[in-house]
Design a protein that fits this description.
- The complex is a heterodimer of chains A (99) and B (149).
- Chain A folds into two domains: 32 residues, no CATH class; 65 residues, no CATH class.
- The longest helix of chain A is centred in the first third of the chain and has 19 residues.
- Chain A has a three-stranded parallel β-sheet with strand order 3-1-4, covered by helices on one side.
- Helices cover 43% and strands 14% of the residues of chain A.
- Chain B is α/β, with parallel strands linked by helices and 149 residues long.
- Chain B has one domain: Oxidized Rhodanese, domain 1, CATH 3.40.250.10.
- Chain B has a five-stranded parallel β-sheet.
- The chains are: A alpha/beta (99), B alpha/beta (149).
- Chains A and B meet through helix 3, helix 4, strand 2 and strand 4 of A and strand 1, helix 1, strand 2, helix 4 and helix 5 of B.
- Strand 4 of chain A pairs parallel with strand 1 of chain B.
């Protein structure tokens, strides 16, 4: 009972906090769409030009990456030349996945 | 923008095309426990590769520490000494091995990985120093179990 009350309070606090964020920011926090492996493979090798960005370090990127990806380490996203200039180009980020 | 949540492991599992551009040597880098490093702190250089994520967990106040995030290691590794044992530390201990393989390729052969990463290090330090303040003699693991109870 006490645990449920705590969860309810936590939910209300988080909801209130989310409501105070500008729409663009809250959208970034919760609404980044995902893509599955099969769709990504098709888009990458048969679809229109896109950028597949590996967010790991340069050392990990050189050790093993998806063929056709570029390296955009998570700490070096801003102004990274590997990012597409055209904002309409499909950009997909990946790393080592969950866990 | 989209996220491929499955990431590299999912892609490999599906046997989709991958690319390796550098063959880092496969080496068994020994693991050291935080207690060992703490007790022999002057024998080690601690290499913090965890960057901002590790800084959020804690700050290193003991020993000879060099901060080079893994994202920058390729460019800045020459700042590391070769005459002292280097203990590599990241947040959870998961990226220590690849950093060690890279450093091995660059001629560093006196390396160790911190077992459990920075999380284990800061937790151990807190427990040991709390014990010291209290003047207690109970071993850290036992103390931790008691705290859970």
């Amino acid at each position: 009972m006490k645990k449920n009350s705590l969860l309810l309070v936590l939910f209300m606090v988080v909801s209130a906090w989310m409501a105070t964020l500008p729409a663009s920011v809250s959208a970034m926090v919760v609404d980044i769409p995902t893509i599955d492996a099969d769709t990504l493979k098709y888009e990458l090798y048969h679809g229109p030009p896109m950028v597949l960005a590996n967010a790991l370090s340069p050392i990990e990127f050189k050790d093993l990456t998806i063929r056709g990806s570029v390296n955009v380490p998570s700490s070096k996203v801003q102004g990274n030349p590997n990012l597409p200039e055209d904002k309409d180009t499909l950009l997909v980020f990946f790393c080592k996945g969950p866990g | 923008m989209k996220l491929y949540n499955g990431g590299l492991p999912d892609w490999i599992r599906k046997r989709y095309p991958v690319l390796r551009t550098v063959n880092y040597p496969k080496v068994n880098i020994p693991k050291v426990f935080p207690e060992q490093v703490y007790k022999n702190i002057n024998d080690f250089v601690i290499l913090d590769i965890g960057g901002e994520a590790l800084r959020r967990i804690g700050e290193f106040h003991r020993g000879d520490v060099i901060h080079i995030p893994l994202d920058d290691l390729e460019e800045k590794y020459t700042a590391l000494p070769k005459d002292k044992k280097i203990v590599i530390v990241d947040v959870m201990g998961k990226q220590e091995n690849i950093a060690g393989r890279f450093l091995t390729m660059k001629g560093y052969d006196n390396l160790a990985e911190m077992a459990g990463g920075g999380r284990a290090w800061f937790k151990t330090i807190r427990i040991i120093e709390m014990e010291k303040k209290k003047g207690g003699t109970r071993p850290p693991a036992e103390k931790e179990n008691m705290a859970k109870e």
